[in-house]
Amino acid sequence: QVQLVESGGALVEAGGSLRLACAASGRTFSSYNMGWFRQAPGKEREFVGGISWSGGSTYYADPVKGRFTISRDNVKATVYLQMSSLKPEDTAVYYCAARSRLRGAGPGQYDYWGQGTQVTVSS
Q1: Taking CA atoms, which of 9, 52, 67, 85 is between 20 and 30 Å from 121?
Q2: Which of 46, 29, 21, 41 is nearest to 99 (CA)?
Q3: DSSP code per residue over 20-67
Q4: Is 9 left (phi over 0), alpha (psi -120 to 50) or beta?
Q5: What percentage of residues in the chain have a pLDDT greater than 90?
Q6: pLDDT at residue 33 above 90?
Q7: CA 62 from centroid of its chain's CA atoms
Q8: Closest CA to 51 of 1, 104, 8
Q9: DSSP code of residue 85
Q10: Cα–Cα distance for residue pair 71/58, rounded to 1 Å
């Protein structure tokens, strides 16, 4: 198993930038593909993006393409979500998630979840 803890959420003005981090502990971090999801009030949780176990492949949902970047540091066992050109519609609780490296890094079911971190973008 792996335990995930997100950090970095904050209140930021529209157009600003923010970097979220997700620290993993437990089983070897490089065993997992990692994903970022978000859930806005009254909406379903949605896939934001993912990164393969090696960092060699990344995937992004259309609403964040060109604005968000996912990276990982397997030595530090941490995955990052760099967000720029933030919009009020990016306001949500952001979650990181993990699943086996055998199952790809795109959308779909993930097995392990963090507790989430709040991002609020003011207009």
Answers
A1: 52
A2: 29
A3: EEEEEEES-GGGEEEEEEEE-TTS--EEEEEE-TTS--EEE-GGGTTT
A4: beta
A5: 90
A6: yes
A7: 15
A8: 104
A9: S
A10: 8
**Tokens 């060109």 correspond to what residue?**
66
* Identity of the residue numbered 55: G
* pLDDT single digits (tens) 60-113: 999 999 999 999 999 999 999 999 999 999 999 999 999 998 888 889 899 999
- How many residues can be counted in the chain? 123
For the chain, what is the largest distance between any 2 Cα atoms, rounded to a whole number of angstroms?
41
Residues 6+ apart with CB under 8 A from 2: 24, 25, 26, 27, 29, 31, 32, 98, 112
Q: Which residue has the tokens 């978000």?
A: 38
Is there a contact between 78 and 21 (Cβ–Cβ < 8 Å)? Answer: yes
Task: Give the neighbor-by-neighbor strand order of the sheet with 78-83.
Answer: 2-7, 18-26, 78-83, 68-73
What residues form DSSP beta bridges with 65?
Answer: none
Q: Are 122 and 66 in contact (CB under 8 A)?
A: no
Tokens at residue 57, please?
A: 């492949």
